[in-house]
Amino acid sequence: MLPSEQDLRHIVLDLRQMKSFAQDPLVIERADGVWYWDTEGHKILDCLSGIFVANVGHNNRRIIEALKAQLDRLAFAPPLHATNLPALELAKLVAEVTPGDLDTVKLLSGGSEATEAAMKLARQYHRQTGNPAKYKVIARYLGYHGATMGALGATGTPARKTVFEPALEGFLHVPPPTCYRCPYGLTYSSCNLLCAHMFEQVIEGEGASTISAIILEPIGNTGGIITPPDEYLPIIRDACDRHNVLLIFDEIITGFGRTGNMFAAQTFGVTPDILCMGKGMSGGYAPLAALAYCDRVADAFWGEEGTEFAHGHTYGGNPISATAGLMSIREILDRNLCQRALEMGACLREELKRIEALGVVGEIRGKGLLLGIEFVQDPATRQQFDNRFGVAVGNRALRKGVLLRYDPHWLAFAPPLIIEREQLVHAVDLLGESILEELKERGR
Asked: How far apart are CA 84 and CA 87, in angstroms?
C-alpha cells in the first residue's frame, strides 16, 4: 500500500523534489540477493547496489546473524575512552586489504565524514611537520566528495554546491580526464595527458608551499563514470611526491571489489597517501566509512599529547557497524567477489554492445562492475541530446523493473558483485526496450 501525499510531507529524500516524488512514490518493502520489492509487490532488479552500497547483496544471512549476535554482546562503546573488539578486528583487516603501507585506520560512519576527515588530516599533518601554510586542496570539476561544507568545497559539480555557496576557502579545481569530450580539445594519447599535468601546473601556480592535498575519485561518478587513461594517476602521484602534497583517493564508490580489485588504487596500480572508503564497506548493513593512511602520515600523530588527530564522530568505531564491515569484507574475500566483478563486468560490457545498434550510444566506459553509457544524438558528431534523454530512459527502465544510476546524458550500472549473467542480460534487455520507447516518443 502506497503512503498518502500527506504521509510523505514528513520525510525528505536525498536530492529529490518531494512534491513530484509524492505524486508517484517508490516505497521499498523488502530485498533479497539482487532484487527489491516495493509495497505494491513490484520486483526491481537492483543494478545500482542501492546506491553503490550492497556489494555482497541483500539479505545476506551470514552478515545478519553476526549482527544479531553482536547486538546481544555490545551495541555501543564509549568512543572517547575505549575501543571494542569488532573495531580492532576491522581496522586490522582494512590494513591488510589496502595497498602499500596504508596501515592506520580511522573508523567513521559516512562517506562525507571520510572525505572531510581526510582533508583535515592533511592540514594537520602539514602543520605538525613544519609546513603550516599548506592548507589548499586541489580537486576536479564534475567530482563529488560529499554533502558537508568541506566536502562540498572539494566538490566540482555545480548542481550539488551552488545553492550553499560561498563554500569554504582554499579549494581549487582542474578539469577531469573526460577523454571522450576533452576539455582542451585534444585527443588521447597525443595530448600528452595534459589533464594530469594540470595538477602540477596549479601546484606551481599557487605555490607548492600552500598546497596540502589533491583529492580525486579514481573513477568519477557524477560526471558520468569518468575513467582515466592508465598513465593519468601515476603522473599525479609523481607530482605529489615532488611537491610534498598528499594524494587522497575518494574510493567511497570504487572500493570493496567494485572495479575488480578490493580498491581502484590496486586496479590502477597507484597507492595514495590517504584512502577514503565507505558505502560497500559494510554492504549496506550498517552506516560505516573509514580512512586508511600511510605510515609517514601516521607517524606525525603518534607521540606527544596534543599531536593526536583532532577529529572524531560519535558513531566512529561503533561495534555494530564494525561487525557489518568485518563480515562484508570477509564475504568479498571468501567468495572471491573481486574476480567475480571482473568476470561479470566483462559480461555486462559485452551485453551493452547490443544496444550500440540503437544509434545513441557514444561511449561505454568504466572498470569491473562499474560501467557507464554516454548517450548522444549522433555517435559520429558526439552531439548530446538537449532534453534529459538519460533521465527519461532511466525512469522508463525503473518502471520496467531495473534500478540504474542516471543523469541527463548518461546512465550507469553498478550491481551487487553476486549478480548472475542471466540477470545482467535481463537488465540490458529492459534498458534496450526503454531506449527504443523513448526514441519512438521523440519521433526517431
From this structure: 5
Place of cell 563554500: 167
Closest CA to 280 of 251, 320, 260: 251
Q: Which amino acid is at 355?
A: I
Q: Could you give the domains of the chain?
A: 5-56+336-441 (3.90.1150.10), 62-334 (3.40.640.10)
What are the CA-CA distances from residue 132 to residues 30, 121, 136, 332 (Å)?
Answer: 51, 13, 11, 41
Would you place residue 129 in the very low, low, confident or very high pLDDT band (cuts 50, 70, 90)?
Answer: very high
As a whole-number percent, the residues of the chain with pLDDT over 90 amount to 93
pLDDT given for residue 79 in this prediction = 93
The count of C-alpha atoms lying within 13 angstroms of the C-alpha of 203, restricted to the half-sphere facing its C-beta, is: 24
Mean per-residue pLDDT for 351-357?
A: 95
Beta bridge partners of residue 43, listed in sequence order = 37
Assigned C-alpha cell, 76: 555501543
Task: Say which amino acid occupies 281.
Answer: M
C-alpha cell at 369: 562492475
149: Cα within 13 Å, side-chain hemisphere: 7
Using CA atoms, how far residue 235 sits from 209, 220, 271, in Å, is: 20, 17, 12
Q: Where do we find the cell 611526491?
A: 241
Q: Order across the sheet with 370-375: list the strands.
A: 361-367, 370-375, 410-413, 405-407
Residue 136, C-alpha cell as written in the block: 589548499
pTM (predicted TM-score): 0.97
Length of the chain: 444
The set of residues, in sequence order, having a beta carbon less than 8 Å from that of 348 and lying 6+ positions away, is 369, 371, 413, 415, 424, 428
280 DSSP 8-state letter: G
Residue type for position 398: L
At how many degrees (to 10) do helices 194-206 and 232-243 cross?
20
Q: How far apart are CA 26 and CA 383, in angstroms?
A: 33
Order the strands of the 402-403 sheet from edge to edge. Answer: 28-32, 35-38, 43-46, 402-403
Indicate whether 1 pLDDT > 80: no
